[in-house]
Amino acid sequence: MEGLRVGGVNIRRGGRNIVAGAQFSAPAGKVTGLVGPNGAGKSTLISAIVGIERPEAGELTFEGANLVAMGRRERAGICAYVEQSASTEERLSVADVVALGRIPHLPAWAVGLGTDDETVVAEALEKVGMARFAGRQFSTLSGGEQQRVHIARALAQEPKLLVLDEPTSHLDIRAQLQVLHLLGGLAKAGGTVLLALHDLNLALRFCDWLVVLDAGQVVAEGRPAEVLREDLLASVYGVYARLIEGPGGPVIAYEGTV
Ligand SMILES: Nc1ncnc2c1ncn2[C@@H]1O[C@H](COP(=O)(O)OP(=O)(O)OP(=O)(O)O)[C@@H](O)[C@H]1O
């Protein structure tokens, strides 16, 4: 299965190349991690993939269809996006925020959700452990609770391509494991999942495929344990680390900065 293909993408901002000739695949049926140090260009590249900005050059395709040329509604029928910092939906309830995910699936004349849509919304909240918050005003939630609701909104969209920018940054460790497990389940069901991630041990454990971005360029792509080698951790992240065998597979033990 083809999934997402990023081909020779250039993105300029402020008069300089932020992403330069990025080329990689996020295959369908896999969780692909996009990793790299602060400022590497991960969010910028993601903003082009989800259609927030147009790349200056290059191709972005999903299952062979050109994402750049797609209209908003068509793209929303395929791709859901969970932003790094959640925007404030001030007066909406939690259930209303998640219901926004159903909009691409509603007919143009619809005035509200159908029963099936409401079931999808309730299930999405259940999956992220937020069902009991359905009636709460979104703005009263904690950062981690808001992040879970945004993930639920993306799940309610039932996307073929799910793109998440650091979806676990505000989550406690249990919620991180639950969300990453959930994403693994979506991929196993045939979905394409791409997520920017800082925790390389979580990337090792939960990603099937890894893309490393450094200074706007893809410097490595492959299976996590083959990509996250000691020399790459030193050259890209500037850290000394050892890969040691943990009970559930390899684990990175950090030793210091280069
Ligand atoms: N409008 C802009 N003008 C100039 N530089 C910009 C602009 N927007 C972003 N940048 C720069 O582009 C680089 C990439 O930013 P981006 O947010 O994509 O990185 P990132 O890999 O997501 O980083 P982080 O891990 O810190 O979230 C950074 O150095 C940032 O300062």
From TrEMBL:
GO molecular function: ATP binding; ATP hydrolysis activity
Source domain of life: Bacteria
SMART domains from the UniProt entry: AAA
InterPro entries: AAA+_ATPase, ABC_transporter-like_ATP-bd, P-loop_NTPase
Gene3D superfamilies attached to this UniProt entry: P-loop containing nucleotide triphosphate hydrolases
Keywords: ATP-binding, Nucleotide-binding, Transport
Domain ABC transporter: 4-240
UniProt-listed Pfam families: ABC_tran
Family that this chain belongs to: Belongs to the ABC transporter superfamily.
Protein name as it appears in the record: ABC transporter domain-containing protein
Annotated source species: Devosia riboflavina
Organism placement in taxonomy: Bacteria, Pseudomonadati, Pseudomonadota, Alphaproteobacteria, Hyphomicrobiales
